[in-house]
Amino acid sequence: MVIIMNPDANRENIENVIAAIEANGLSAKVMEGSTQKIVGVIGDKTRIASVPFDAMDGVESTVSISKSYKLASREFHPASSIINVDGVNIGDGTPVVMAGPCAVESKEQLFEAADIVKAAGAQFLRGGAYKPRTSPYSFQGLEETGLKYLAKAKERTGLKIVTEVTVVEAVELVAQYADMLQVGARNMQNFGLLKEVGKCGKPVLLKRGLAATIDEWLNAAEYIMSEGNADVVLCERGIRTYETYTRNTLDLSAVAAVKHLSHLPIIVDPSHGTGKWRMVKPMALAAIAAGADGLMTEMHPNPAKALSDGPQSLTPEHFRDIMNCVNKMAKFMREENIINW
Ligand code: PEP
Ligand code: MN
User: Fold this and answer.
1) Quick one: which of 23, 65, 80, 287 has the most CB atoms within 10 Å?
2) CB atoms within 10 A of CB 10
3) How far is CA 19 from the centre of its chain?
4) By C-alpha distance, which of 292, 268, 270 is closest to 280?
């Protein structure tokens, strides 16, 4: 069960609600989004069945939720959420684009990429400073130096920064430099990391695990939200199947499923989803047509020289073409009022 507070509920109102929950042996989690304050009840709700929460000062309504994830469910929050990342809205009907190299390799490489991303009209610069590589001998990222280059690229271009955090110990540091913290596919069920980013005070981009069901993915979002962070954006990046031609199988049906089950915005990463730069454009356009709230794509000033994920990285020229076509598709959908969910 969740208890939705009036927008003007004060501290005392919330504390009284928490006290009523705790007096019955249950625990409460307060979630403060940009527009709403919510108290989630954790534990056996039959023990508070007789507590008249609706009559308490500051309470707007109570909602009983059947799914194992509550705060992430559309039952809990029927309207689609719009997540504000340092002034850029995700989920407001205009797709956002996050683009940049797989890894931050040098200041020059990152600045060149950032200038191209900015000029093409994207809103976010991506780039890993901590890289979760399959082999321990592969390039592992520039770590804090990479974060500093990302922050400088933001100063230079105004682009928002999204970058991956791979370990609990680095969350605070990454949050100092980034506008949005990315939890990668390999960490989607790293519950300690999910809880830590739930406390970091910055929006989180949660990628789908390599073999995660949609239910597991939404429960992972719930871990973040139950720590008080309502600003979660999901990212479909392909799942493991028997197919070997593509690196992963991009599950675009996840966009429709998530839109039905959850109020959280969802973006699509056709770069990791296919592993092939040639497939990025058609899958990017299909993602927008399916109702995705944005895209994440890898673009490198010189993909042939990339230290990671060169085969799926777009050249600047291909990236500009995709931006142009995505904008046309989004404009058409807006003007024709095409909403797929
Ligand atoms: C990435 O975005 O750089 C990345 C490693 O993606 P994923 O976690 O989806 O594999
Ligand atoms: Mn990559």
Assistant:
1) 287
2) 13
3) 33
4) 270
Question: pLDDT tens digits, residue range 245-298?
Answer: 999 999 999 999 999 999 999 999 999 999 999 999 999 999 999 999 999 999
Nearest-CA residue for atom 3 of ligand 1:
102
CB-CB contact of 18 with 39 (8 Å): yes
Give residue-wise pLDDT tens across range 113-149.
999 999 999 999 999 999 999 999 999 999 999 999 9
Distance in angstroms (rounded) separating the CA atoms of residues 268 and 202: 20
Within the chain, how many helices (H) and strands (E) appear?
10, 14
Over residues 167-191, mean pLDDT: 98
What lines the ligand 1 site, CB under 6 Å? 102, 128, 132, 164, 184-186, 207, 237, 272
Phi-psi region of 127 (alpha: psi -120 to 50; beta: other; left: phi over 0): left
Q: Which residues are near ligand 2, the ion (C-beta closer than 5 Å)?
A: 102, 309
> Whole-angstrom Cα distance, residue 50 to residue 75?
22
Measure the CA–CA gap between 154 and 223, rounded to whole angstroms. 29
Residue linked to tokens 């990791």:
272
The whole-model pTM stands at: 0.92
Q: What distance lies between CA 335 and its chain's CA centroid?
A: 27
Please give the distance, rounded to the nearest whole angstrom, from the Cα atom of residue 130 to the centre of ligand 2: 11
- Rounded to the nearest angstrom, the distance between the alpha carbon of 167 and the centre of ligand 1 is 14
CA dist., res. 306 & res. 266, Å (int): 28
Length of the chain (residues) = 341
Q: Which atom of ligand 1 is nearest to the CA of 309?
A: 3
Q: Ligand 1 test: best mutation among 174, 208, 272, most atoms within 8 Å of CB? A: 272
Residue 83: CA count within 13 A, CB half-sphere: 24
- Ligand 2 center from residue 310 Cα (angstroms): 8
